Amino acid sequence: SREIKSIESSIPVGLRDTWKKFAAAEFTTKESFQKEVVRHVETTLARSLYNCDELAAYSGAALAMRDKLIIDWNKTQQAHTLADQKRVYYLSLEFLMGRTLDNAMLNQNIKDIAAEGVSELGFRMEDLIDQEHDAALGNGGLGRLAACFLDSLASLNYPAWGYGLRYRYGIFKQEIIDGYQVEVPDYWLDFNPWEFPRHDITVDIMFYGYVRRYTEDDGTTVNIWEGGEVVQALAYDVPIPGYGTPTTNNLRLWSSKPSTGEFDFQKFNSGDYESSVRDQQRAETISAVLYPNDNIDVGKELRLKQQYFWVAASLHDIVRRFKKSHRAWTDFPLQVAIQLNDTHPTLAIVELMRILVDKEHLDWDTAWNIVTETFGYTNHTVLPEALEKWSVPLFQNLLPRHLQIIYDINLFFLQSVERRFPKDRELLSRVSIIEESNPQVIRMAYLAIIGSKKVNGVAELHSDLIKTTIFKDFVKIFGPDKFTNVTNGVTPRRWLHQANPQLSALIKEKLGSYEFLKDLSLLHGLEKFADDKVFQKEWMDIKHHNKQRLAKYIKDTTGISVNPNALFDIQVKRIHEYKRQQMNIFGVISRYLSLKAMTKEERAKQVQRVSIFGGKAAPGYWMAKTIIRLITAVSEVVNNDVDIGDLLKVVFIEDYNVSKAEFLCPASDLSEHISTAGTEASGTSNMKFVLNGGLIIGTCDGANIEITREIGEERIFLFGNLAEDVEDLRHAHRYGKTVMDPALKEVCDEIEKGTFGEPGVFAGLIHSLTEGGDYYLVSDDFASYLSTHKLVDEAFKDTAAWAHNSIVAVSRMGFFTSDRAINEYAEEIWNVDPVILAA
Ligand code: Z57
Q1: What is the CA radius of gyration of the chain?
Q2: What pTM value is reported for the model?
Q3: With contact defined as beta carbons under 8 Å apart, do 447 and 371 qualify?
Q4: At the topology level of CATH, where does 84-99+134-486 sit?
Q5: Active-site annotation holder among 68, 99, 573, 616
Q6: Which one in 105, 175, 232, 395 has a CA-CA gap of 20 to 30 Å to 469?
């Protein structure tokens, strides 16, 4: 293979000068941008002035922007190689990036110029931005967190790469047909200007096969994994621009294809085309589709294949990069930090052991020291159904050598536990990586803990809970310092500046600059204007404008008219019983029944409400789908009830995704974060809504608690039971010692009367509250939920106080930037420093 010349002085002067003379230059002016757009439209896309539609214009603008990013990307990668410092690798099966054009323009501070430029070419920038397809390679919070973290890593100049899978199909598109969710495949790659295929960067990955073991003359044991099926991983690179810095990091996504050796030319030649095409399709299936489950482990073989394929390709790449430095293996953790986003990439621990022991012939202990200094593991859930466990027989068949390594890791671990806690057989079986069920299963979280240097939760309560419940034994074994908290954050570039440009501009006017987008704690400077009447009006006018924009969207897409002066109450997130959208819709029904029972005079005094829902249900999650059906059924009844009019509207927004979140977050007066206490690890949309001036109603769960601490409890509508009481309450339900809340009973009766259509449709939902044991404690929290909504209504009537609280809350949200979270990871877990690029 050709040698890459990375040291400038190794290149002859003449050659160097010729290259530099023609080096690609970034556009910096309107004219140079326009020139690039037209060039791309006319040559790259083979279109012209006469047939350039909005999609072609978007494509031209995106390609021009891509060229600009890649110039910075090249500089960054060169500088990072030269700096030769420790790098961070963020391994995530999900990156929920959303759209890129607007974000890239804003991060590069070129949007004004570009908008003028396209306007003179006959287009509105907003329309072009709207042409872009969301990159939806994720399910929900976990995937979006990864995307926010990439933005912060680049903005803070950390040398960091993301590694993921290049799914051909992202999360499905949701259509609502006759009130039911229907899933439509999301083929998003027909035009994706933001990726670069790296045809020279491929890795062969093996599955199945067997392990051949023999003893060498000197007595060492050699394990050779062979005879399996090989597929090839092909790299696609996505540039990640930082805000206000040339640093442009890399997100490397792997795509699967038949390995060159594997694709069976014999079959092809002999005319057995069908079988050879089948082989090809089988290879391509690995990266074909994102599993659409959030917070649930399904345990399918193809998912395990995806995990190993991605982890093995990424580690091969990381190790190859490390080897170029010719350092000793023991330096590996000084050059490399690998963060495991949940347990999905836990096989990386095993694969690195295999590389070090089987291929590089390090002794086990040396290898294990390297491994356990390299990895960090982030836990995102305590829900038992979400904790990954792989069946041993399935695993053994697919990855026989990895299973042996896991057995050895487990053996040495259990031996060390036994030495420290002799005769505690119970402890040994509790902490064993192998659960002795039928079939046996591998507990991936335990493997991740044992193989990592640090384990972190994603909000204070959650980090405390993992230490006192699911990982309690490991705190005893490893000590408390291995466990830490890094509260999640969101990027203010996308979630304030891009989503709400007017609010961002107003804040800039008050604070004097856009510096707050880099240092969000500067928002504190707003607090002194919280009682300024003129400022309050400007603030609330922007909220009104954003609500009008949403009202228009609702009208255009659903036909429902909503009054922008009404209180907009929004709950958008994956549909899950623990998030309790069912409680929200039961609350809406209860409100509807009270309104129906009122006189005209009483009704006239009520606060108008628009209850907005959005979110996808996992395709196999029947209860979640039933919840959607109930929401749509209630909306059909309520929205068409002439007694009710504008007092109450119910809207389900189809296909909730990142780009929809960008216009929903700025348009809320109130948003709902109402999970059963102790179940939502953090939540991140709570942060996005408050950052955009909305207040929240929520339980004492996840990051709600820290939001309350920061903004003050006068500014948040908290209700419901506490996490510490959940176990007892569930116990009481299980032993039939409860009566249903009377208001909830009324709601259930109304559903069973058929007010919202055939009641049989909702039987499962009602059953979950009764015989089902009300696992999510809807009945226990219902009374306080309703009374807290009454407080919301009262508070909303006092416009000045509401504006004051909105401003104060925003001014105290600085903590929730993902920049703060990333700096904490860098200092407490990774031990990496930024690399400042030369100007
Ligand atoms: C997911 O989106 C989250 C946790 C998971 O274990 C899986 Br799988 C998917 C979410 C949590 O539910 C949120 O509470 C949290 O804010 C988010 O991850 C990011 O940490």
Answers
A1: 28
A2: 0.98
A3: no
A4: Rossmann fold (3.40.50)
A5: 573
A6: 395
Secondary structure of residue 652 in the 3-state scheme: strand
Q: Which atom of ligand 1 lies nearest, measured to the CA of 684?
A: 16
Catalytic residue among 380, 454, 462, 629: 380
Q: How far is the CA of 584 from the centre of ligand 1 (A)?
A: 21
Say which residue the tokens 């204007």 belong to.
529
Q: Provide the β-strand partners of residue 229.
A: 207
Q: Tell me the C-alpha distance between 144 and 161, whole Å.
A: 16
Domains 84-99+134-486 and 501-816 share a fold: yes
Q: What percent of the chain has pLDDT over 70?
A: 98
Pocket test for ligand 1, best of 142, 296, 573, 621 (most atoms within 8 A of CB): 142
- CA of 142 from ligand 1 middle (Å) equals 4
688 is catalytic: yes
Retrieve residue 248's tokens. Answer: 């442009």
Per-residue pLDDT for 5 more than 90? no
Instruction: Collect all residues with Cβ–Cβ distance below 8 Å to 234 and sequence separation of at least 6.
Output: 197, 198, 199, 201, 202, 254, 255, 256, 257
Question: What average pLDDT does the segment 560-589 reach?
Answer: 98
Residue 3 pLDDT > 50: no
pLDDT of residue 526: 98
Picking from 226, 233, 237, 239, the residue whose alpha carbon sits closest to that of residue 257 is 233
Which structure tokens are listed for 289? 């589709």
- Domains of the chain, residue spans: 23-83+100-133, 84-99+134-486, 501-816
665 CA → ligand 1 middle, Å: 19
Nearest to 816 by CA among 714, 708, 707: 707
Residues 715, 809: Cα–Cα separation, whole Å? 7
CA–CA separation, 485 and 148 (whole Å): 18
Do β-strands 196-207 and 229-241 pair in parallel, antiparallel, or remain unpaired? antiparallel
Q: Is 423 a catalytic residue?
A: no
Tell me which residue has its CA closest to atom 7 in ligand 1: 295
Which atom of ligand 1 is least distant from the CA of 297?
A: 8
Q: Which amino acid is at 776?
A: Y
Is the confidence at residue 116, as pLDDT, over 90?
yes
User: Rounded CA gap, 731 and 276, in Å?
Assistant: 57
Q: Give residue-wise pLDDT tens across range 420-433.
A: 999 999 999 999 99
- Kindly report, residue by residue over 647-684, the tens digit of the pLDDT: 999 999 999 999 999 999 999 999 999 999 999 999 99
Are the C-beta atoms of residues 137 and 282 closer than 8 Å to each other? no
Nearest C-alpha neighbor of 452 from the set 307, 334, 364, 338 = 338
pLDDT, one tens digit per residue, over 286-295 is 999 999 999 9
Residue nearest to atom 19 of ligand 1 (CA): 142
Q: Which of 30, 482, 574, 616 is catalytic?
A: 574
**Whether 380 is catalytic:** yes
User: How remote is the CA of residue 788 from the centroid of ligand 1, in Å?
Assistant: 26
Tokens linked to 465:
């809970």
In this predicted complex, what is the ipTM?
0.98
Q: What architecture does CATH give domain 501-816?
A: 3-Layer(aba) Sandwich (3.40)
Say which residues have a Cβ less than 8 Å from residue 753's Cβ, sequence separation at least 6.
Answer: 759
**Ligand 1 site, CB within 6 A:** 139-142, 145, 294-295, 342, 380-381, 386, 458, 488, 680-684, 702
Q: What is the pLDDT of residues 718-751, one digit of tens each?
A: 999 999 999 999 999 999 889 999 999 999 999 9
**Catalytic (active site) residue 574:** yes
Q: Has 545 been annotated as catalytic?
A: no
In the reported structure, the alpha carbon of residue 380 is separated from the centroid of ligand 1 by a whole-number distance in angstroms of: 5
Helix axes 533-558, 799-811, angle to 10 degrees: 90
* Residue 673 alpha carbon to ligand 1 centre in Å: 14
Strand partners, 650: 611
Residue nearest atom 8 in ligand 1 by C-alpha distance: 295
Catalytic residue from among 443, 609, 688, 715: 688
Q: Could you confirm whether 543 is annotated as catalytic?
A: no
Cα-to-centroid distance, 141 and ligand 1 (Å) = 5
